[in-house]
Amino acid sequence: MVKSITLGRYFVGNSFLHRANPKIKILVTFIYVFVLFFINKICSYVFGFFVIAVLYKICKIPLKMAFDNIKSMAFILIFTGFINLFFGGNGEIIFKLWVFKITKVAVITTVFVAFRMFLLIVGMGLLTYTTLPLDLAKAIGDAFTPLKKFHFPAGEISTMISISIRFIPLLMLETEKIIFAQKSRGVDVSGKSIRKKVKFIISILVPLLVSSFKRADELAVAMESRCYRIGFSRTRYIVFKLGVKDLILFVCAIIFFVSLFVIGAFSWF
Amino acid sequence: MGEFIKVEGAYFSYNNSNKDFDINNVSFNVLPGEMLCIVGANGSGKSTIAKMLNGIIIPSKGSVIVDGIDSSSADLAFKIRQNVGLVFQNPDNQIVATVVQEDVAFALENLCVPSSEIGSIVNRVLNMVGMLSYKDRLVEGLSGGQKSKVAIAGVLAMNPKCIVLDEATAMLDPKSSYEVLNIVKNLNRKSNTTIINITHRMQEVAMADRVIVLNKGVVLAQGSPRDIFLNERVLSEAGLCLPQVSQFVKLLHKDGIVNEEIALDVDECVQILANLLEGA
């Protein structure tokens, strides 16, 4: 089950996006998300998807992986669509059943939101597929650095994210071991009733939580013993320096965003 | 020669109890460049002592002085941690980064070493533990022994005067265990780094200059490995067993076959047997 999750995974490669500065990639993604919520023409969305699909091709990432992300987010998408469709706005009613009514405005809003969500997930996938999780964590830490003036723990947040990423495979391994151990002790894993399923999940969660807390405690001691101190400044071994290529990437991204608006302005749908 | 670490009348209780202590009036010294072994059964207080030596645990009574710095002075605890590196049993729980070189750099980043200098230190210490070719590898793909070596490199990066191994070989296979101990032995011989090996594996005791036996938070005995191996009462009280080679020579001595009372390691046992065969 865990292996089927593609969202947030890194796809090994050596494209210009893989090599680009993570800070620039995060900034571009942030602007992209912002832009998405301001464009409201189908033509712009189609053009946006076309460009992103080309980028997937250049980075040699199968577009199927982007669609896999959509699948794993299906519940949220359907839920958002449902809310928009039935409670999305007033106006001309085209369908009514009890308290539920679908208006023409709601249908249009739902279509736009669906397009936005789709492009959001596919675009964000490009960021995570081309950036090592640890680099992403460091870049996020760097992005928060100006907030240090206001006593915001930017460095600590970056360390926290890095450590969480480091421990994900270990916890997955631990979960597998616990499942095997519980199976060998006769815990019923095939039970189809909700009661049995809950019982099985609890039998995994409890030992997993206990071992995770123990691990966290040991890690805290190990970090302290290696001179880690909360609230003190640290230097950085790997520093992300901005290069000309990063600036070119940023300019290209801005041209892409502006073209989304321009296409929207000159198209009627 | 003045002592590097001085533990004097140290008490500690995890429950903040004034009567029931986990560490009970422990006193010992560690000399600079010494190779000390602290042995004891599970729950004897070995790991607590390790944390005390690193300034992570402060004794509730008594004192721990490291290189002239009292561990109770919170401002200087940082300096103690820099001088006394701690390597734990499970390398998975002490490796912070996902890539080998980034983990080794962790302590250097904490010590605010300039970014431009970190690379050369990382390369040097990884070379010392024979892991330089793995510097770009993900930690996840390493074996237990390799992870332990990375953990040692992470500690070495701080350039400590002393390294405390808290059962660092307990989870390793014999080959990896041998390699890790060899690295530590070389550090002691070549760089004069003080080594404190905390273990319950008696075969590791033979390589120490001195041994401290702990039992239920109390120092039961101190002495050379030979003295400790010969002290049956102490071993039985501490719940420790002699290594098989030592037991073998002890039985031979008991039956009057050899004169030597004990062998510390395989080499010594072989020598005794060779002498026996020569005599025959």
Describe the protein's architecture and organization.
- Chain A is mostly helical.
- Chain A is built from 10 helices and 2 strands, in the order αααααββααααα.
- A two-stranded antiparallel ribbon of chain A has the order 1-2.
- In chain A, strand 1 and strand 2 form a beta hairpin.
- Chain B has helices spanning 46-53, 77-83, 100-110, 115-128, 144-156, 174-191, 225-230, 232-238, 244-254, 266-279; strands spanning 5-12, 23-30, 35-39, 61-66, 69-70, 84-87, 162-166, 194-199, 210-215, 218-223.
- In chain B, helix 3 runs parallel beside helix 5 (144-156), helix 4 crosses helix 5 and helix 5 (144-156) packs parallel to helix 6 (174-191).
- The model of chain B has no long low-confidence stretch (mean pLDDT 90).
- The chains are: A mainly alpha (269), B alpha/beta (280).
- The interface between A and B is medium-sized, with 29 and 39 residues.
Short description:
Chain A has 269 residues and is mainly alpha-helical.
What percentage of the residues of chain B does DSSP assign to strands (E)?
15-25%
Helix content of chain B: 25-40%
Largest sheet of chain B: 6 strands, mixed
Instruction: Determine the structural class of chain A based on helices, strands and strand pairing.
Output: mainly alpha
Mean pLDDT of chain A: 84
Number of strands of chain A: 2
Adjacency order of strands in the biggest sheet of chain A: 1-2
Task: Provide the succession of SSEs of chain B.
Answer: EEEHEEHEHHHEHEEEHHHH
From the spread of the alpha carbons, the general shape of chain B counts as: globular
**Which class do the helix and strand fractions of chain B yield?**
alpha/beta
* Backbone CA Rg of chain B: 20 Å
Low-confidence stretches of chain B: none
Q: List segments of chain A where confidence is low: pLDDT < 50 over at least 5 consecutive residues.
A: 1-7
Calculate the terminal CA-CA distance of chain A, rounded to whole Å.
40 Å
Count of the domains of chain A = 2
Count all strands of chain B and give the number: 10
Q: Strand order, biggest sheet of chain B?
A: 6-7-8-3-9-10
Helix content of chain A: 55-70%
The coarse overall form of chain A would be: globular
Integer-rounded radius of gyration of chain A: 23 Å
Number of helices of chain A: 10
